[in-house]
């Protein structure tokens, strides 16, 4: 990277604020820098890019960032993005959580002996799903399959390889376009008010170019 450029990683999540910045040139004007945007399928992949020195800034979920920091990746969170943002989808035979007394355990019991898809290990969606599987003692009865690109969760549901999926609301919308599925657990039921994602800077930028931060 030259001193006149900044490399920013982001996810495909449609409601992340980076899309507003990508849609215009205000950020480049404000910073006086050339901005290079790079799309990543999951947060853990973005962490790998930070580790390799390919990124200066990234928009991603907190769990992969925390895991990365714990493993020595030199990044710091400088701002929060939004709260919540994880949903669970199922096929039409799966009941909504509101029809099961708002009981997440009963929702998951519908998937005993089945496979649920979620983004990469370490993503916030994977972390939330596994939290509830452990809480309701279902880890040995439900298989979790991880994907580097969330859209493939819906595709494999359509193929009959998965019974459900956990991811962003965009996953629920996409799934409904290719198979007979529906949203069974909305964001406010999955760790309510969880800080879904943040804005992270490489420590070199914070140290050497604090005016950018």
Automatic annotation (TrEMBL):
One GO CC term of this entry? periplasmic space
Alphabetized, the UniProt keywords read:
Signal
What does the UniProt entry say about where the protein is found? Periplasm
What stretch or stretches form a coiled coil here? none
Q: Where is the signal peptide?
A: none
Query: Where does the protein principally reside?
Result: periplasm
The record's section on PANTHER family has: ALIPHATIC SULFONATES-BINDING PROTEIN-RELATED, TAURINE-BINDING PERIPLASMIC PROTEIN
Family per record: Belongs to the bacterial solute-binding protein SsuA/TauA family.
Q: What is this protein called?
A: SsuA/THI5-like domain-containing protein
Name the source organism. Answer: marine sediment metagenome
Q: What is the lineage of its organism?
A: unclassified sequences, metagenomes, ecological metagenomes
